[in-house]
Amino acid sequence: MIANAWVVWLILLLPLGAFLLVGLIGRRFREGGGYIVVGAMAGSLVLSLYVFVQVLMQGGLGGTFAPETVTGYVWLPSIPGNEIRISILIDNLSSLMLVLVSFLCLLIFIYSLGYMHEEEGKARYYAEVSLFATGMLGTVSADNFLQLLIFWEIMGLCSYLLIGFWYHKPEAAAAAKKAFLVTRVGDVLFLVAVLIIWNEFHSLRFDVIAPQVGLLNPQLLTLIPLLLFGGAVGKSAQFPLHTWLPDAMEGPTTVSALIHAATMVKAGVYLTARSFIFLVPLAPGVQAPFTAILVIAGIGGFTTLFAASMAVVNNDIKRVLAFSTISQLGYMFLGLGAGAYVMATQASRGEEVSSAGYSAALYHLFNHAFFKALLFLSAGSVIHAVNTNDMREMGGLSKAMPTTSRVMLFGSLALAGIVPFSGFFSKGEILSVTFDAGADHPGFYLLYTFGIATAFLTAFYAFRLWFMTFHGEYRGHEHPHESPRVMTAPLMILAGFTLVSGLLAYPMQGFGNLVFFERPEAGFPLVGVPWSHYLLEGASLGVAVLGIALAWSIYATKRIPAERFTAIRGGAFLYRMLTRRYWIDDVYDAFGRNVVVGLARGLDWFDRNVIDGIVNAVGRGGMRVAVQSDAFDRRVIDGAVNAVSLETIRTSWRLRQRQTGQVQSYAWVIVVGLVVLFFLMFGQRLVERFLGGP
Amino acid sequence: MIPLQYELLLSAALFCIGLYGILARRNAIIVLMSIEILLNASILNFVAFSSYSGNPSGQVFALLGIAVAAAEAAVGLAVFLSIYQTHGTIELDKIRILKW
Q: In this structure, is residue B1 part of a structural domain?
């Protein structure tokens, strides 16, 4: 049992309160309310740590901690017991994510105090990032799919708002729209998945659904995780919905670091990890949805190479990192997919299952959050100094910015996967699991080659970036200077974590001992693993070193001129293809311009001619009927009424003539009337009397 | 003893004279006098039937009728005087204010 479980609400409510306060009256505070947001986030971090430490103390390591739900208020009423509540799930994964997210948010908010110092609209920025923090914390602590979706959409909104922070720049406004619309494709799939889940289980809670997954029919068991993965593809910018993330770099660098590297894009990975209850239903006799698993692993593996190749040719420091983020997210999906495949195969054979892939992917998520946030913030520090994103106008900055250059070296080493930096451990584990999965399905050998090729490219583009920025002579026209301490301090903390977050696995006896699916796995990284894994780790380390060496010889010593590659025909074509991002953006644009706009034109024509025609015809028919009805009304109905009234008037006129005011004429009428009456009463008798009747 | 028929015939003759006067004459005074004749014709009927049947209540009615006729004459003459003052005439065919 978690003591003082109610404090978990404060983890969410503190940033939410900061959002409301800063959003409403932020302009009145110093730094646009930045200190309030930082304070709220620090509170969230302390409380998250409080919860996380309790989870650890109560057996979070080794899996004896029973997941706990802090029940909240009813969001949607339903049959008692099935209401959808806003509740907070506390288990190993969510408590770790809470700490991770609040820690990174705090560091990046502190960094923002320096980075955003000279900006207009700081209050807006701080309000939006604070709301974003609420969204991310809510996403990772949701205990049901609907709550997850709600907070997921809050993040999407904040992402949109923050990419478009400089909304007066047309590129930023367009990028914001693109990000919102492209992720929406995935969000709709996610929503459909939520609806199907509700329809099947009459509940959306993970703990209620998990034991019943075996009752699903195989088609739905495949469909649901694929739809959930569709949401993840949008949010985590995987192929084919990856196009929004590079453009999202139009936002402030802090936003790129926070939302588009460290946290929000990880929500897709988190969701896929949560959907393991569908991917690996461990009920006896239930066939796992292998197709869905292969799709996830395939898209992850493909995206990782695909995005890394585009990072190689980009000259925009932030875009390189954006492509790198897509690529690293691909690794995580590859790890999840391969892990699920291995696990499902083991389960179907009745063997002891191993959640190595699951924990490797989340391990990479954890490590990547630190080193990619570090890389982005360092890039921000550089951009702050030289006022450009273009690496061709940088160079030699290590003299002017020694701290930034050093921390960025740490980040690059972690990204490249050089031992003992964090990327080495998690990337190596993912590749090992993928290679192991190859024994069950040969497709994973192909994905492994993608992964290892990506490891080479990753090291290459990471150091291409570093050498182009910090090595050689300065090529720009500014006067670069080191960033203020409020910015470098978070950088140094993060640089420390690029070392620590990987090595943390040792005191925990392996990351799989903390974050796992079904079964914890104790075991120190690189200790007591099969000999093949040493070879695999060695291979990934080797290609990384090769990549760095190639970057060194091309961009640092210039022993191999880069032009030699583009001079040959195939190379030039490849270069063009990569800089045009495989023409996918062009294809989407063309699709939008031709198909969507054409469809819209066609529909417009249809609307104007057919629909409007029908409407107008109906209208004209109505008019005609109305005219007829009007005529009928005027002639017949009014005619009858008027005839009655006219006749009444005429009659009254005639009767009026009789009222002459001549008393004697009235007397005449009386006399004549009396006579007539008399004859009517007595006439017959008189006739009989005088003419002789019976 | 005068036979009842004669009395009734006299009464009818008086009634017809009165009726003629009412319907035909223009002067309001003459019309008023004709009304008196009409009344007296009916009073004569009361008296005739009273003596014929030996019941005296008819004669009581006759006295009542004479009293009513006197009051009616007084009211009628006052009305005519008032009309004369406002219209300057008592010719009935000239007085047509009770008209639509």
A: no
Q: How far apart are the C-alpha atoms of B45 and B9, rounded to whole Å?
A: 10
| B38 pLDDT tier (thresholds 50, 70, 90) | very high
Q: Are strands A88-90 and A68-70 parallel, antiparallel or unpaired?
A: antiparallel
Residues of chain A with pLDDT under 70: 693-694
Q: State if pTM tops 0.80.
A: no
b/e A385-416 (16+ beta carbons within 10 angstroms → b): bbebbebebbbbbbebbebbbebbbbbbbbbb
Report the amino acid identity of residue A244: W
User: What's the confidence (pLDDT) of residue A201?
Assistant: 86
Chain B nearest-CA residue for A671: B19
CA–CA distance, A556 with A541 (Å, rounded to integer)? 21
Neighbours of A544 (CB within 10 A): 28
Between the alpha carbon of residue A121 and those of residues A128, A248, A381, the distances in Å are 11, 19, 20
On whether the CB atoms of residues A359 and A511 are closer than 8 A, the answer is yes
**The total number of structural domains that make up chain B:** 1
The pLDDT assigned to B100 comes to 61
B97/A667 Cβ within 8 A: no
Phi, psi of A85 (to 5 degrees): -110, 155
Q: Is A12 left (phi over 0), alpha (psi -120 to 50) or beta?
A: alpha
Question: Does residue B99 lie in a domain region?
Answer: no
**B21 within a domain of the structure (yes/no):** no
C-alpha distance across the termini of chain B, in Å: 54
- Best of A652, A663, A666, A668 to substitute, by most chain B Cβ atoms within 10 angstroms, is A663
Quote the tokens at residue A428: 């190596």
Distance CA A96, CA A145 (A): 19
Taking CA atoms, A470 is separated from A253, A373, A379, A561, B4, in Å, by: 19, 19, 11, 18, 157
In a domain, B12, yes or no: no
Q: What is the C-alpha separation between A402 and A406, in angstroms, rounded?
A: 6
Please report, for the domain that includes residue B64, its CATH number.
Answer: 1.10.287.3510
**Kind and range of the H or E run holding A75:** strand A74-76
Distance CA A102, CA A107 (A): 9
| pLDDT confidence of residue A693 | 57
Q: Which residues of A touch B97 (CB under 8 A)?
A: 661
Token couple for A585: 């953006």
CA distance A634 to chain B (A): 33
Q: Give the CA distances from residue A120 to residues A31, A117, B64, in Å, rounded to whole numbers and listed in that order.
A: 10, 9, 117
Nearest by CB to residue A661, choosing from B19, B23, B97, is: B97
Stretch (H or E) spanning B52: helix B28-53
pLDDT reported for residue A4: 80
What pLDDT score was predicted for residue A15? 92
Q: What pLDDT does residue A694 have? A: 54
Question: Do residues A281 and A288 touch, judged by C-beta distance below 8 A?
Answer: yes
